Amino acid sequence: MADLRFAATTADVALVAATAKTVLQVQAPTGRRVKILGWSVSFDGQLVTSEPVTVVLTRQAGTGTMTAYTSSDITTLNMVAETVQSTVRHTATVEPTASSGQAALDTVLVHPQSGYEVKFPIGQEPIIPGAGYVGLVITAPQSVNCRSKIICEE
Amino acid sequence: MAANIFIAQALSEIATYNSGSPKTVLQVKAPANCRVKILGWGISFDGRDVAAEPVVVDLVRQTTAGAMSSLYVYQQQPYTDTAISSTAQHTAGSEPTLADVLDSVEVHPQSGYEIRYPYGQEPVIAGDGRVGIRVTAPAAVNCRVKMICEE
């Protein structure tokens, strides 16, 4: 971990009502641990009486079927010359397998007219082990679009 | 306290309404002879009524377990050689005994509340002690709840 910080982000991802979807996933490079510095999600809902959305940051065991970003799609935050080695995928059409044991890192209910963001304090960041996966899995009671991001450090 | 961070969290929604009386939705118990830092905690609700009365949420010291269901605790930075020794439980059917209130807040049931304590200002659970999150909901609503701790 040498201060190569990057943000994996999505444009609007459509969520189908009552269907869990991994909207964003980060895979650490083989032999390299990655720190999760923070993450966020926000929605474009317009209905004040909508039921809040379940959001879980969780370890996963594979990729499912997702769209992979190229390195040029991943924004480094501190303008270093090196290339991000992690792999970022988004918008699962087939869900990744959940990791067994020690899987869930965070969970929250979020109203679809709003959002949620956390920056982990120094020393308290969850770790993705080498070649491991962490994804953001969202289950919305009603159809809505979301934007999400995971901020990491290699 | 040696940087072994864990999160105790409910991964399904907990019904909070207890006829207007307090209900403990989460409790963490420190191991014997080992103090535990509370790094932060959070709660969020699934309410849909914009005119609903806010829910009272308390962070409390408790002296007993009450009657609750056990809850798995997740290491935030796993792959260490030391397992978590603290235990957690959720959803009291019989309330634990209250000792002290550490924090209290009103939260609208369409939203949530979360705090991460500044370094050096974290509440501490004494060895073999218990801290719970207690909810007093004026009407039926479900919650997700979590407490982030360090052994």
Overall description:
- The complex is a heterodimer of chains A (154) and B (151).
- With 154 residues, chain A is mainly beta.
- Chain A contains no helices and 13 strands.
- Chain A is globular, with a radius of gyration of 15 Å.
- Chain A starts with a strand and ends with a strand.
- Chain B is mainly beta.
- Chain B has no helices and 13 strands.
- Chain B has strands at residues 5-9, 14-15, 23-29, 36-45, 55-62, 67-71, 73-75, 87-94, 98-107, 112-116, 124-125, 130-136, 142-150.
- In chain B, strands 1, 2, 4, 7, 10, 11 and 13 form a 7-stranded antiparallel sheet that branches. In chain B, strands 6-8-3-12-5-9 form a 6-stranded antiparallel sheet, with no helix packed on it.
- The model of chain B has no long low-confidence stretch (mean pLDDT 94).
- The chains are: A mainly beta (154), B mainly beta (151).
- Chain A binds chain B through residues 48-52, 54, 56, 102-111, 114, 116, 118, 121, 123-127, 129, and chain B through 3, 5, 7, 9-11, 13, 39, 42, 44-50, 74-79, 110-112, 114, 116, 119, 143-144, 146, 148, 150.
Helices and strands, with pairings:
The complex is a heterodimer of chains A (154) and B (151).
Chain A: E1 5-9, E2 13-15, E3 21-27, E4 34-43, E5 53-60, E6 65-68, E7 75-76, E8 87-94, E9 104-110, E10 115-119, E11 127-128, E12 133-139, E13 144-153
Antiparallel strand pairs in A: 1-7, 1-13, 2-13, 3-8, 3-12, 4-10, 4-11, 4-13, 5-9, 5-12, 6-8
Chain B: E1 5-9, E2 14-15, E3 23-29, E4 36-45, E5 55-62, E6 67-71, E7 73-75, E8 87-94, E9 98-107, E10 112-116, E11 124-125, E12 130-136, E13 142-150
The largest inter-chain interface, given as chain pair and residues per side, is: A-B, 27 and 33 residues
Approximately how much helix is present in the residues of chain A?
A: under 10%
Order of helices and strands of chain B: EEEEEEEEEEEEE
Estimate the global geometry of chain B from the Cα principal axes: globular
- Morphology call of chain A: globular
Count of helical segments of chain A? 0
Structural class of chain A: mainly beta
Q: Tell me the major beta sheet of chain A.
A: 7 strands, antiparallel
State which percent range the strand residues of chain B make up.
over 45%
- How far the N terminus sits from the C terminus of chain A, by CA atoms, comes to 5 Å
Counted by DSSP, the helix tally of chain B is 0
Total DSSP E strands of chain B:
13
Instruction: Give the tally of β-strands of chain A.
Output: 13
As a percent range, the share of strand residues of chain A is: over 45%
Report low-confidence residues of chain A grouped into runs of 5 or more: none
H-E order of chain A:
EEEEEEEEEEEEE
Structural class of chain B: mainly beta
Rounded to the nearest angstrom, the distance between the terminal CA atoms of chain B is 5 Å
Whole-number radius of gyration of chain A?
15 Å
Radius of gyration of chain B: 15 Å
Low-confidence stretches of chain B: none
